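can u do me a favor
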Protein backbone atom coordinates (compact mmCIF):
# COMPACT_ATOMS: atom_id res chain seq x y z
CA UNK A 1 0.00 0.00 0.00
CA UNK A 2 2.90 2.38 0.69
CA UNK A 3 4.15 1.84 -2.87
CA UNK A 4 0.70 2.57 -4.30
CA UNK A 5 0.30 5.72 -2.18
CA UNK A 6 3.76 6.89 -3.27
CA UNK A 7 3.06 6.29 -6.96
CA UNK A 8 -0.22 8.20 -6.67
CA UNK A 9 1.62 11.14 -5.11
CA UNK A 10 4.35 11.13 -7.80
CA UNK A 11 1.59 11.69 -10.36
CA UNK A 12 1.97 11.69 -14.13
CA UNK A 13 5.73 11.97 -14.03
CA UNK A 14 5.96 8.40 -12.72
CA UNK A 15 5.26 7.15 -16.25
CA UNK A 16 7.18 9.85 -18.10
CA UNK A 17 10.74 8.63 -17.48
CA UNK A 18 12.60 8.57 -20.75
CA UNK A 19 9.84 10.10 -22.87
CA UNK A 20 10.08 13.43 -24.68
CA UNK A 21 13.02 15.35 -26.06
CA UNK A 22 13.73 17.16 -22.80
CA UNK A 23 13.12 14.26 -20.44
CA UNK A 24 15.70 12.75 -18.11
CA UNK A 25 15.50 8.93 -18.15
CA UNK A 26 15.77 8.29 -14.41
CA UNK A 27 14.56 4.98 -13.02
CA UNK A 28 11.58 6.36 -11.10
CA UNK A 29 10.07 2.95 -10.50
CA UNK A 30 13.30 1.59 -9.06
CA UNK A 31 13.85 4.64 -6.85
CA UNK A 32 10.31 4.61 -5.43
CA UNK A 33 10.23 0.85 -4.98
CA UNK A 34 13.53 0.79 -3.08
CA UNK A 35 12.36 3.67 -0.86
CA UNK A 36 9.18 1.87 0.14
CA UNK A 37 10.75 -1.57 0.48
CA UNK A 38 13.51 -0.25 2.75
CA UNK A 39 11.22 1.92 4.91
CA UNK A 40 10.62 -0.70 7.61
CA UNK A 41 14.32 -1.48 7.90
CA UNK A 42 15.15 2.24 8.06
CA UNK A 43 12.78 2.79 10.99
CA UNK A 44 14.13 -0.27 12.80
CA UNK A 45 17.73 0.86 12.25
CA UNK A 46 17.00 4.33 13.65
CA UNK A 47 15.20 2.91 16.67
CA UNK A 48 17.42 -0.07 17.46
CA UNK A 49 20.91 1.13 16.50
CA UNK A 50 20.68 4.92 16.80
CA UNK A 51 18.22 5.06 19.68
CA UNK A 52 15.67 7.41 18.08
CA UNK A 53 12.18 7.25 19.58
CA UNK A 54 9.73 6.59 16.72
CA UNK A 55 7.03 4.91 18.79
CA UNK A 56 4.06 7.07 17.77
CA UNK A 57 2.39 6.24 14.45
CA UNK A 58 -0.02 8.64 12.75
CA UNK A 59 -1.74 9.33 9.42
CA UNK A 60 -0.48 12.13 7.20
CA UNK A 61 -2.10 13.52 4.09
CA UNK A 62 -2.06 11.19 1.09
CA UNK A 63 -1.56 8.02 3.15
CA UNK A 64 -4.25 5.34 3.08
CA UNK A 65 -3.30 4.02 6.55
CA UNK A 66 -1.37 5.29 9.61
CA UNK A 67 2.33 4.67 8.90
CA UNK A 68 4.32 7.83 9.67
CA UNK A 69 6.49 7.66 12.78
CA UNK A 70 7.45 10.27 15.36
CA UNK A 71 8.60 10.23 18.96
CA UNK A 72 6.53 10.67 22.09
CA UNK A 73 8.72 13.52 23.34
CA UNK A 74 8.94 17.20 22.47
CA UNK A 75 11.45 17.01 19.63
CA UNK A 76 10.16 17.00 16.03
CA UNK A 77 11.22 13.87 14.08
CA UNK A 78 13.91 15.69 12.10
CA UNK A 79 15.61 17.11 15.18
CA UNK A 80 15.38 13.74 16.94
CA UNK A 81 17.06 12.02 13.98
CA UNK A 82 19.85 14.58 13.71
CA UNK A 83 20.52 14.55 17.46
CA UNK A 84 20.61 10.76 17.54
CA UNK A 85 22.94 10.49 14.55
CA UNK A 86 25.27 13.20 15.87
CA UNK A 87 25.51 11.48 19.24
CA UNK A 88 26.41 8.23 17.50
CA UNK A 89 29.00 9.88 15.26
CA UNK A 90 30.67 11.61 18.21
CA UNK A 91 31.52 8.18 19.58
CA UNK A 92 33.99 7.89 16.67
CA UNK A 93 37.30 9.71 17.37
CA UNK A 94 37.89 10.38 13.65
CA UNK A 95 34.61 12.26 13.23
CA UNK A 96 34.94 15.97 12.47
CA UNK A 97 32.15 18.46 11.80
CA UNK A 98 32.10 22.14 10.91
CA UNK A 99 29.12 24.31 10.03
CA UNK A 100 31.28 27.28 9.08
CA UNK A 101 32.52 25.94 5.73
CA UNK A 102 31.25 26.83 2.26
CA UNK A 103 31.92 24.45 -0.63
CA UNK A 104 33.13 26.42 -3.64
CA UNK A 105 33.88 23.67 -6.14
CA UNK A 106 33.72 19.91 -6.70
CA UNK A 107 37.14 18.82 -7.95
CA UNK A 108 37.68 16.18 -10.63
CA UNK A 109 40.39 14.42 -12.60
CA UNK A 110 40.57 16.27 -15.91
CA UNK A 111 41.05 13.16 -18.04
CA UNK A 112 38.38 10.91 -16.50
CA UNK A 113 35.92 13.23 -14.76
CA UNK A 114 36.31 11.16 -11.59
CA UNK A 115 35.40 13.29 -8.56
CA UNK A 116 38.41 13.71 -6.28
CA UNK A 117 37.05 15.96 -3.52
CA UNK A 118 35.95 19.53 -2.87
CA UNK A 119 37.38 23.01 -2.48
CA UNK A 120 35.89 24.91 0.44
CA UNK A 121 36.45 28.05 2.47
CA UNK A 122 36.45 28.57 6.23
CA UNK A 123 36.84 32.14 7.48
CA UNK A 124 37.90 33.21 4.01
CA UNK A 125 40.69 30.62 3.72
CA UNK A 126 40.57 28.18 0.80
CA UNK A 127 41.03 24.48 1.65
CA UNK A 128 40.92 21.16 -0.19
CA UNK A 129 39.42 17.89 0.99
CA UNK A 130 40.18 14.73 -0.98
CA UNK A 131 38.07 11.60 -1.36
CA UNK A 132 34.68 10.42 -2.61
CA UNK A 133 31.96 13.04 -2.04
CA UNK A 134 28.43 12.65 -0.68
CA UNK A 135 26.20 15.68 -1.27
CA UNK A 136 23.31 16.05 1.18
CA UNK A 137 22.91 19.82 0.92
CA UNK A 138 19.12 19.95 0.66
CA UNK A 139 16.82 21.63 -1.83
CA UNK A 140 16.37 25.18 -3.09
CA UNK A 141 13.07 26.26 -1.54
CA UNK A 142 14.95 29.02 0.30
CA UNK A 143 16.72 30.21 -2.86
CA UNK A 144 13.76 32.49 -3.53
CA UNK A 145 15.24 34.75 -6.19
CA UNK A 146 17.86 32.27 -7.45
CA UNK A 147 17.13 28.68 -8.47
CA UNK A 148 13.47 28.88 -7.42
CA UNK A 149 12.86 31.97 -9.53
CA UNK A 150 14.84 30.44 -12.42
CA UNK A 151 12.62 27.36 -12.66
CA UNK A 152 9.37 28.67 -11.14
CA UNK A 153 9.10 32.39 -11.73
CA UNK A 154 5.52 32.30 -10.44
CA UNK A 155 6.82 31.36 -6.97
CA UNK A 156 9.47 34.08 -6.66
CA UNK A 157 8.87 35.82 -3.33
CA UNK A 158 6.36 33.19 -2.16
CA UNK A 159 6.52 32.44 1.60
CA UNK A 160 8.75 29.47 2.42
CA UNK A 161 9.60 27.26 5.38
CA UNK A 162 13.28 27.08 4.40
CA UNK A 163 15.91 29.57 5.46
CA UNK A 164 17.08 31.96 2.77
CA UNK A 165 20.19 30.45 1.20
CA UNK A 166 21.39 29.46 -2.29
CA UNK A 167 20.80 25.95 -3.61
CA UNK A 168 23.81 23.69 -4.21
CA UNK A 169 22.63 22.00 -7.41
CA UNK A 170 24.76 24.22 -9.66
CA UNK A 171 27.93 22.93 -7.98
CA UNK A 172 27.08 19.47 -9.26
CA UNK A 173 25.95 20.67 -12.68
CA UNK A 174 29.46 22.10 -13.07
CA UNK A 175 30.86 18.54 -13.07
CA UNK A 176 28.22 17.24 -15.47
CA UNK A 177 25.32 16.25 -13.22
CA UNK A 178 21.94 16.10 -14.94
CA UNK A 179 18.96 17.87 -13.37
CA UNK A 180 15.44 16.46 -13.26
CA UNK A 181 12.00 17.81 -12.24
CA UNK A 182 13.37 21.24 -11.35
CA UNK A 183 10.00 22.89 -11.99
CA UNK A 184 8.30 20.50 -9.57
CA UNK A 185 7.92 22.41 -6.30
CA UNK A 186 5.76 21.38 -3.37
CA UNK A 187 3.57 23.94 -1.71
CA UNK A 188 2.84 22.83 1.84
CA UNK A 189 -0.71 23.82 2.79
CA UNK A 190 0.06 24.93 6.33
CA UNK A 191 2.73 27.42 7.31
CA UNK A 192 1.96 29.54 10.37
CA UNK A 193 1.28 33.25 9.97
CA UNK A 194 2.99 34.81 12.97
CA UNK A 195 0.64 37.47 14.44
CA UNK A 196 3.72 39.41 15.52
CA UNK A 197 5.10 39.55 11.96
CA UNK A 198 2.42 38.74 9.41
CA UNK A 199 4.45 40.07 6.48
CA UNK A 200 7.46 37.82 7.01
CA UNK A 201 8.25 35.57 4.02
CA UNK A 202 9.79 33.00 6.35
CA UNK A 203 7.04 30.87 7.87
CA UNK A 204 7.26 28.19 10.54
CA UNK A 205 5.76 24.89 9.41
CA UNK A 206 2.45 23.88 10.97
CA UNK A 207 3.18 20.15 11.17
CA UNK A 208 0.92 17.87 9.17
CA UNK A 209 0.27 15.83 12.30
CA UNK A 210 -1.90 18.71 13.55
CA UNK A 211 -4.41 17.67 10.91
CA UNK A 212 -3.59 13.99 11.25
CA UNK A 213 -4.66 14.03 14.91
CA UNK A 214 -7.99 15.62 14.02
CA UNK A 215 -7.30 19.29 13.38
CA UNK A 216 -9.48 21.07 10.84
CA UNK A 217 -9.11 24.02 8.47
CA UNK A 218 -11.74 26.77 8.43
CA UNK A 219 -12.02 29.66 5.99
CA UNK A 220 -12.82 33.20 7.11
CA UNK A 221 -16.52 32.27 7.20
CA UNK A 222 -15.97 29.32 9.55
CA UNK A 223 -16.49 26.71 6.81
CA UNK A 224 -14.48 23.57 6.13
CA UNK A 225 -13.68 23.44 2.43
CA UNK A 226 -11.35 20.45 1.89
CA UNK A 227 -10.51 17.01 3.23
CA UNK A 228 -7.62 18.07 5.45
CA UNK A 229 -5.86 14.72 4.91
CA UNK A 230 -5.87 14.81 1.12
CA UNK A 231 -2.62 15.21 -0.80
CA UNK A 232 -0.70 18.36 0.02
CA UNK A 233 -1.21 19.64 -3.51
CA UNK A 234 -4.97 19.18 -3.23
CA UNK A 235 -5.20 20.92 0.16
CA UNK A 236 -2.96 23.77 -1.00
CA UNK A 237 -4.98 24.30 -4.18
CA UNK A 238 -8.20 24.39 -2.17
CA UNK A 239 -6.80 27.02 0.19
CA UNK A 240 -5.61 29.17 -2.70
CA UNK A 241 -9.16 29.29 -4.05
CA UNK A 242 -10.32 31.07 -0.88
CA UNK A 243 -9.98 34.84 -0.27
CA UNK A 244 -6.46 36.09 0.37
CA UNK A 245 -5.26 37.65 3.59
CA UNK A 246 -3.70 40.80 2.19
CA UNK A 247 -0.32 41.54 3.76
CA UNK A 248 2.00 43.99 2.06
CA UNK A 249 4.44 42.20 -0.21
CA UNK A 250 3.42 38.68 0.82
CA UNK A 251 1.04 36.30 -0.93
CA UNK A 252 -0.96 34.51 1.75
CA UNK A 253 -4.47 33.38 2.68
CA UNK A 254 -6.92 33.75 5.57
CA UNK A 255 -7.29 30.22 6.96
CA UNK A 256 -7.52 29.00 10.55
CA UNK A 257 -6.40 25.65 11.92
CA UNK A 258 -8.38 24.45 14.94
CA UNK A 259 -7.73 21.58 17.38
CA UNK A 260 -10.23 20.33 19.95
CA UNK A 261 -9.27 19.09 23.47
CA UNK A 262 -8.71 15.53 22.23
CA UNK A 263 -6.35 16.51 19.43
CA UNK A 264 -4.69 19.05 21.72
CA UNK A 265 -3.98 16.41 24.35
CA UNK A 266 -2.43 14.10 21.75
CA UNK A 267 -0.18 16.93 20.58
CA UNK A 268 0.65 18.55 23.91
CA UNK A 269 4.38 18.82 23.19
CA UNK A 270 3.79 20.42 19.78
CA UNK A 271 1.27 22.90 21.12
CA UNK A 272 3.48 23.88 24.02
CA UNK A 273 6.11 24.92 21.49
CA UNK A 274 3.67 26.62 19.10
CA UNK A 275 2.02 28.65 21.87
CA UNK A 276 5.43 29.61 23.23
CA UNK A 277 6.28 30.90 19.75
CA UNK A 278 2.96 32.79 19.67
CA UNK A 279 1.77 30.85 16.62
CA UNK A 280 -1.28 29.24 18.26
CA UNK A 281 -3.59 30.50 20.98
CA UNK A 282 -5.74 28.68 23.51
CA UNK A 283 -9.37 29.82 23.57
CA UNK A 284 -12.73 28.64 24.81
CA UNK A 285 -15.28 27.59 22.22
CA UNK A 286 -17.70 30.30 23.38
CA UNK A 287 -15.14 33.00 22.54
CA UNK A 288 -15.00 32.04 18.87
CA UNK A 289 -17.11 33.79 16.20
CA UNK A 290 -20.56 32.13 15.84
CA UNK A 291 -19.70 30.85 12.36
CA UNK A 292 -16.62 29.08 13.75
CA UNK A 293 -18.68 27.50 16.53
CA UNK A 294 -21.09 26.17 13.90
CA UNK A 295 -18.12 24.82 11.95
CA UNK A 296 -16.91 22.91 15.02
CA UNK A 297 -20.39 21.52 15.62
CA UNK A 298 -20.73 20.32 12.04
CA UNK A 299 -17.36 18.58 12.09
CA UNK A 300 -18.06 17.01 15.49
CA UNK A 301 -21.27 15.51 14.09
CA UNK A 302 -19.24 13.98 11.26
CA UNK A 303 -16.72 12.50 13.71
CA UNK A 304 -19.60 11.06 15.78
CA UNK A 305 -20.97 9.33 12.68
CA UNK A 306 -24.20 11.31 12.57
CA UNK A 307 -23.50 12.42 9.00
CA UNK A 308 -21.01 11.48 6.32
CA UNK A 309 -18.31 14.01 5.54
CA UNK A 310 -19.19 15.58 2.16
CA UNK A 311 -15.47 16.35 1.73
CA UNK A 312 -14.51 12.69 2.08
CA UNK A 313 -12.57 12.64 5.33
CA UNK A 314 -12.74 9.27 7.10
CA UNK A 315 -9.90 9.48 9.65
CA UNK A 316 -10.38 11.89 12.55
CA UNK A 317 -7.39 11.25 14.80
CA UNK A 318 -8.02 12.09 18.46
CA UNK A 319 -10.90 14.56 18.00
CA UNK A 320 -13.57 13.96 20.66
CA UNK A 321 -15.46 17.27 21.06
CA UNK A 322 -19.24 16.76 21.04
CA UNK A 323 -21.74 19.63 20.76
CA UNK A 324 -24.27 17.89 23.00
CA UNK A 325 -21.81 17.29 25.83
CA UNK A 326 -22.04 19.39 28.96
CA UNK A 327 -19.54 22.22 28.94
CA UNK A 328 -19.17 22.30 25.14
CA UNK A 329 -18.87 26.08 25.02
CA UNK A 330 -16.39 26.06 27.91
CA UNK A 331 -14.14 23.54 26.16
CA UNK A 332 -10.65 24.85 25.35
CA UNK A 333 -9.41 24.65 21.79
CA UNK A 334 -6.22 25.77 20.05
CA UNK A 335 -6.36 28.01 16.99
CA UNK A 336 -3.81 29.56 14.65
CA UNK A 337 -3.61 31.23 11.24
CA UNK A 338 -1.98 29.36 8.37
CA UNK A 339 -1.17 29.85 4.70
CA UNK A 340 0.39 27.73 1.94
CA UNK A 341 4.20 27.95 1.76
CA UNK A 342 6.98 26.69 -0.48
CA UNK A 343 8.19 23.69 1.47
CA UNK A 344 9.99 21.14 -0.69
CA UNK A 345 11.64 21.00 -4.10
CA UNK A 346 11.09 17.63 -5.76
CA UNK A 347 13.66 18.42 -8.44
CA UNK A 348 17.40 18.04 -8.16
CA UNK A 349 20.30 16.05 -9.53
CA UNK A 350 19.50 12.76 -11.24
CA UNK A 351 20.68 9.71 -9.29
CA UNK A 352 20.19 5.96 -9.20
CA UNK A 353 19.33 3.30 -6.62
CA UNK A 354 22.99 3.18 -5.59
CA UNK A 355 22.88 6.92 -4.76
CA UNK A 356 25.30 7.69 -7.59
CA UNK A 357 24.89 11.11 -9.22
CA UNK A 358 24.22 10.75 -12.94
CA UNK A 359 25.37 12.61 -16.04
CA UNK A 360 24.15 12.48 -19.61
CA UNK A 361 26.18 10.19 -21.87
CA UNK A 362 27.17 12.38 -24.78
CA UNK A 363 26.97 9.55 -27.29
CA UNK A 364 23.60 7.91 -26.67
CA UNK A 365 21.84 10.20 -24.24
CA UNK A 366 21.67 7.59 -21.50
CA UNK A 367 22.51 8.46 -17.92
CA UNK A 368 25.75 7.16 -16.45
CA UNK A 369 27.27 7.58 -12.95
CA UNK A 370 29.82 10.28 -12.19
CA UNK A 371 32.59 8.29 -10.46
CA UNK A 372 33.20 9.32 -6.87
CA UNK A 373 30.04 11.43 -6.50
CA UNK A 374 27.00 10.40 -4.44
CA UNK A 375 23.92 12.25 -3.22
CA UNK A 376 20.92 11.79 -0.95
CA UNK A 377 17.99 13.81 0.29
CA UNK A 378 16.35 16.88 -1.19
CA UNK A 379 19.29 17.74 -3.42
CA UNK A 380 18.29 14.78 -5.61
CA UNK A 381 15.39 14.50 -8.06
CA UNK A 382 13.34 11.71 -9.57
CA UNK A 383 11.70 10.04 -6.58
CA UNK A 384 8.83 12.38 -5.81
CA UNK A 385 7.81 13.56 -9.27
CA UNK A 386 4.89 15.98 -9.14
CA UNK A 387 4.31 15.86 -5.39
CA UNK A 388 6.11 14.41 -2.35
CA UNK A 389 4.11 12.15 -0.06
CA UNK A 390 4.14 13.46 3.51
CA UNK A 391 6.74 11.74 5.70
CA UNK A 392 8.91 10.60 2.79
CA UNK A 393 11.58 13.30 2.98
CA UNK A 394 13.26 12.10 6.17
CA UNK A 395 12.76 8.52 5.01
CA UNK A 396 14.51 9.34 1.75
CA UNK A 397 17.43 10.84 3.67
CA UNK A 398 17.83 7.70 5.77
CA UNK A 399 17.39 5.10 3.02
CA UNK A 400 19.53 6.75 0.36
CA UNK A 401 21.86 8.43 2.85
CA UNK A 402 22.90 5.03 4.19
CA UNK A 403 23.39 3.72 0.66
CA UNK A 404 25.49 6.75 -0.29
CA UNK A 405 27.60 6.55 2.85
CA UNK A 406 28.31 2.86 2.44
CA UNK A 407 29.18 3.30 -1.25
CA UNK A 408 31.55 6.19 -0.53
CA UNK A 409 33.20 4.24 2.28
CA UNK A 410 33.64 1.22 0.01
CA UNK A 411 35.27 3.39 -2.65
CA UNK A 412 37.59 4.98 -0.11
CA UNK A 413 38.67 1.59 1.23
CA UNK A 414 39.37 0.41 -2.32
CA UNK A 415 41.83 3.23 -3.03
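np, heres the sequence
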Amino acid sequence: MFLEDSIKSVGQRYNEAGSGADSVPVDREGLVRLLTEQSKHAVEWLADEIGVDLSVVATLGGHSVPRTHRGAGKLPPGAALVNGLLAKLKETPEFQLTSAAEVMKVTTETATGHVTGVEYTVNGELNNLAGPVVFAAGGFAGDTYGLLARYRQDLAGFPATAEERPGAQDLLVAVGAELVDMDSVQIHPTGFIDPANERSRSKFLAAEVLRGEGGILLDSGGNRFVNELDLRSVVSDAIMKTPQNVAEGVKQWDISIVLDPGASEALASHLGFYTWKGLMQKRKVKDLPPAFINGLKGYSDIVAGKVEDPLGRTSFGSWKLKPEQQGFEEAEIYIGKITPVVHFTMGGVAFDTKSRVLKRDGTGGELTPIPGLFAAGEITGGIHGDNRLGGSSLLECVVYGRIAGEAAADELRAT
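The chain has a mean pLDDT of 90. hope that helps!!
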